[in-house]
Each structure stands twice: as C-alpha cells, then as structure tokens.
Amino acid sequence: MNIVLLGAPGAGKGTQASMLEERFGLAHISTGDIFRANIKGGTPIGKVAKSYIDAGKLVPDEVTCDIVKGRLCEEDVKGGYMLDGFPRNLFQAQELDKFAHIDLCINIDVDINLLMDRICGRRVCSCGESYHVTTLNGATTCKKCGSPLYQRDDDNPETVGKRLDTYFKETQPLVDYYKKQGKLFTVKSGKQPPSEVFAVIAAELGKRVGK
Ligand code: AP5
Ligand code: MG
C-alpha cells in the first residue's frame, strides 16, 4: 500500500507516520527530514533547501521531485510506503502520478488555531521522533534513542505563519485532487490525542490490508 499523508504544518503527519511504520511496516519518507539531513550534512541540496525552508516557502519542484523519484527506487519501499510532506502542490502531485502508483491519500484535518502552539512547542530528535513540551515533563532526551532533543529552526512564530500561508495557497488544493481520484480518506478527528487519531487511521488501513 502506497500512501500520501496530507495535512497542514503541525497536523501530525510525522507523529502518525512513525506509529504507522511500526504497525504496518510501511517505509516513512519525509521530504522535510531529507532536506534537514542534507542541511546538516552541508550538501549542495541542503544549501539550496535552507533558504526556502527558513523563508517558509517550498523548495523548488525539480529538486524535490528528483529526490522522491530516487528514493522510490530504493529496496525498502517495495513493501509499501508513506510520503510525508510530498506532494505539496499540483505540479508535484501530477509528477508523482507519472513515476508512482498511489493507493490512498490520508488527510489529517486539524483546526488552524491549534497549529501554532503544536509547532512552537515541538521538540525533535535526530532519529525522527517528535514530542511536545507539554508531554515531555521537562525531559530533554528522546525516549526512543536517548539523544538530546532540539527545536527545528523553522519552528518559530514568524516562519510558521509563512508555512501556513504556503500550505493554504499551494497544498490544500490537493485535497480535491485526491478526492477526484477517489483516493481520499479524511481524518476529521485530527485534534484528538495522537493515539485516537492513530486508531482511526489504523482501522481504515486494517480494512484495506487485512492487519
Ligand atoms: P516538513 O518537515 O514536512 O514540515 P511541515 O509540513 O511544515 O509539517 P511539520 O513537520 O511541521 O508537521 P507534522 O504534520 O509532521 O506534525 P508533527 O507530527 O511533527 O517540511 C519543512 C519544510 O521543508 C517546508 O516548509 C518546505 O520548505 C520544505 N519541504 C518539505 N517537503 C517539501 C516539498 N514536497 N516540496 C517543497 N518543499 C518541501 O506534530 C507537530 C507537533 O504536534 C508535535 O509537537 C507533536 O508532538 C504534536 N502533535 C502531533 N499530533 C498531535 C495530536 N493528535 N494532538 C496533540 N498534539 C499532537
Ligand atoms: Mg513533519
């Protein structure tokens, strides 16, 4: 099963992908994580991506599509995958349909008023886990791997505002794109705790893959 995870910044795409990876064994491909790894490694892609990410804009389509196309040739995606943060505009969605077959788009719907607090309170680990300060109870290391937690450079109120603008202008139209293809499953309870959102998604996937 090949899945697109759609949702505004802070909707919980990464949180759900991590739980779904564990339950269903689907490879988790986050374009944001790939860009951040490139920035950390000082690669040419990282140098291009940084200025766009810091400005809350989309990294150019050619760069992003090439990365995903290459990633989908790797061995671990053969058993199915989740794309977290790709596609993010109509062009990317149309390109994706040329080099991959998508079975389902899971759209996590969350009230916009909750997003700023969720993102600005987020703490992340280099292993990909993310947390919120309200549930960390002062902990500063990752529960999964023990590494120190940190705040993403783009998780500040000014950049978050720009990321939300970009989402509403460029990415939200993809809800209709996948609806027209008959592939859309919207999680209306995105404001519920992560475990409840997960239960809704897992029930839907369970019906489709028999797990
Ligand atoms: P990316 O890394 O994809 O960021 P994003 O889309 O802005 O989404 P986030 O990672 O901020 O949110 P999330 O939905 O994963 O939420 P999370 O689970 O962490 O992209 C970053 C940048 O890279 C983009 O701005 C762009 O510049 C570039 N980029 C990436 N892909 C691109 C593409 N395809 N094309 C061009 N450019 C691209 O949860 C958030 C917080 O809420 C956490 O603290 C979490 O603990 C908490 N939380 C999660 N679920 C719940 C819940 N149910 N209830 C309460 N709290 C919750
Ligand atoms: Mg994420």
Strand content: 5-15%
> Unreliable stretches, pLDDT < 50, 5 or more residues?
none
Tell me the distance between the termini. 12 Å
Major sheet: order of its strands?
2-3-1-4-7
Number of strands: 7
Derived structural class: alpha/beta
Helix content: 40-55%
The biggest beta sheet is recorded as: 5 strands, parallel
Helix-strand sequence? EHEHHHEHEHEEHHHEH
What Rg do the Cα atoms give?
Answer: 16 Å
Quickly count the helices. Answer: 10
The chain-level mean pLDDT equals 96
What hetero molecules are in the model?
BIS(adenosine)-5'-pentaphosphate, magnesium ion
Name the overall outline.
globular
Give the helices and strands, then pairings.
Layout lengths: L1 E6 L5 H12 L2 E4 H10 L3 H11 L6 H11 L9 E4 L5 H10 L4 E5 L3 H9 L1 E3 L5 E3 H4 L20 H15 L2 H7 L3 E4 L6 H16 L2
Parallel strand pairs: 1-3, 1-4, 2-3, 4-7
Antiparallel strand pairs: 5-6
Helix pairs in contact: 1-10, 2-3, 4-5
This protein binds BIS(adenosine)-5'-pentaphosphate (AP5) and magnesium ion.
Task: Identify the notable features of this structure and list them briefly.
single chain; 211 residues; alpha/beta; 5-stranded parallel beta sheet; two-stranded antiparallel sheet; 7 strands; 50% helix; 14% strand; globular; binds BIS(adenosine)-5'-pentaphosphate; binds magnesium ion
